[in-house]
Batch of 2 targets.
Target 1
Amino acid sequence: ASVFAGIAQAPEDPILGVTVAFNKDPSPVKVNLGVGAYRTEEGKPLVLNVVRCAEQMLINDPSRYKEYLPITGLAEFNKLSAKLIFGADSPAIQENRVVTVQCLSGTGSLRVGGEFLAKHYHEHTIYIPTPTWGNHPKIFTLAGLTARTYRYYDPATRGLDFNGLVEDLSSAPLGSIVLLHACAHNPTGVDPTVDQWEKIRQLMRSKSLLPFFDSAYQGFASGSLDKDAQPVRMFVADGGELLMAQSYAKNMGLYGERVGALSIVCGSADVAVRVESQLKLVIRPMYSSPPLHGPSVVATILRDSEMFNEWTVELKAMADRIISMRQQLFDALKSRGGSVWLV
Ligand code: PMP
């Protein structure tokens, strides 16, 4: 007998469940297109060479301890992460208007940001695109926000439903939060053009809609870290406020290390100080403080110009391979006749 005897069997997560089914399938020609994890030509996971080097350096450094990090994580990692997404010369950083806290990868950053907004922001509705990453509505709902949708993908053109997007954001209540995929929209791969981003920015600022960027793939869309960050930087350049969730899972291949950051760009330095104090109150009862290894690897790479350059080369190689694999899949499906429908 169990006190839990009445408990119902929960369904598998729709995305991670594909991996469960994949592992069970005895077929020798199976391919797992479920979870978004990079694979080599041999179908194997990849640890970047620059990551292996950084880990060696960390292991060989006798001055390193396993002490707790502060609630906000590794300070150097936070600074470098903000620079990576907002640009080294970002005025918002120079004016000390950016607060960054290390979080448990992209998911944890979204969750901490969501709970902060639920506690301290006047508007609790967050608009998410249709479709979007399946975890988005669950994360924000559990954080205490109300998730609503805006039109994003148009199946007829297999492109952006720009008019639908503009209509839906135009009719959102003043001050609503809007979740934006910074680049490489998941699951469609459809991103606005720079021109469309500029129109979205103007519309959002005119209605005081608060941008919450999700950057899970910086570098994967174009192969360039700076190019993929351009839409975000347009929003920072206008002096307005925003939230930013960053993940190193894909672009540094650190999936299981759970390394990411939440940044909040604030209107002034003194607001940023108070925002940080409140973020600590969100994090402390949730997991107390974040892990040490992942951000140490990232900081080792980002602070050293040679290692940083090596990273950009390895990142570009991953991005190029992804782009060429998609093209080959597209061509192969097309050559077998019928219309191609990639989801
Ligand atoms: N946002 C998007 C759009 C994603 O696709 C993912 C990963 N699939 C994440 C956030 C978060 O991933 P992680 O928590 O592993 O960084």
Note: Residues 36, 105-107, 133, 181, 186, 214, 216, 247, 249, 260 surround 4'-deoxy-4'-aminopyridoxal-5'-phosphate (CB under 6 Å).
Target 2
Amino acid sequence: MSFFRPEILAMDGYTPGEQPQAGKFIKLNTNENPYPPPPGIRRAIEEVLDKGLQRYPDPMANAFRTRAAELYKLPSKDWVLCGNGSDDILTICTRAFVGQGELLRLPYPSYILYKSLAQIQGAQSQEVKFNADWSLPASFGDPAAALKLVFLPNPNSPTGTMISREAILELAERLPCPLIVDEAYADFAEFNCIDLVQQNEKIMVSRTLSKAYGLAGLRFGFLLAQPQMVEQLIKVKDSYNCDAFAIGAATAAIHDEAWQADNRRKIIATRAKLVAGLEQLGFTVIPSQANFVWCNHQKHEARPLYEQLKAQKVLIRYMNYAGWRDGLRISVGTDEQTDVLLALIGSLL
Ligand code: PMP
């Protein structure tokens, strides 16, 4: 006899990547930024402390919303919803749109959390396999009566591949429900879909400060969507889903456009170096627009390589997708970390 709902007992649960709390690893397994965040966040955090923590934070994080609307050229702060990381945004959307027994669609292989969110809701999830060229089959846009929400990571994880803006607009026109374009990695890509939010209320863009702002430890993400959508989603979020430190630091971080441009340049340059190095060592690498790459060695199996690297304190991600394949997802680190990784792999092969 269990107290839990059957759907909770039946699910595996989402397991995030390894986060070792001791030992000095070169950590290239969860797509964090290897560089420290914009320096202005220190002062912002001190200001929160100086003000005191005895009061609740602004429940809407309006300072951040106002700045984000300016930065992304949206008409007002009412187009922005803040969350405790973008995982919180994805949770809010699933809770708001998908009821028990209804359907949530996602591409495969993609971000594993989406399926868990559906399971927690007691909803069905439908995984649609990417085509061989990483485009999506037409069936991804098929309207289905029970379909209530579609997730599309762009760039995708674990592949780093992208679906075009034109295809996304077309999808939104065909779908009977909202389409969350999960742009966790879009700051490293050649384009994004932020302006499409203004063209179709079904298109909503989810973003995070965990990757392109070096703030995975802070927990701050946000959604860009039309105001009538944000207005309803507010009812679903926790009252104070972003704490005062996170609001202060996140607002300071997105003010620093120069830091972001410089960081983006460095990561993209190191990504090219990582890909070239891996290819030279005999890996096949999927061309990526994110801060990670998916690769397989032409002769050596992925799992032992991951284990050998871990034993040498270099952490990458081994992933095994049923019905597709297993392989290695490697985050882009600093140039020095990349040199160490490539040399180590070279010595292990
Ligand atoms: N979307 C995708 C595709 C991701 O890979 C991640 C990171 N695991 C997230 C969303 C969530 O990131 P965060 O909650 O740190 O904003």
Note: Residues 85-87, 111, 153, 157, 182, 184, 208, 210, 216, 221 surround 4'-deoxy-4'-aminopyridoxal-5'-phosphate (CB under 6 Å).
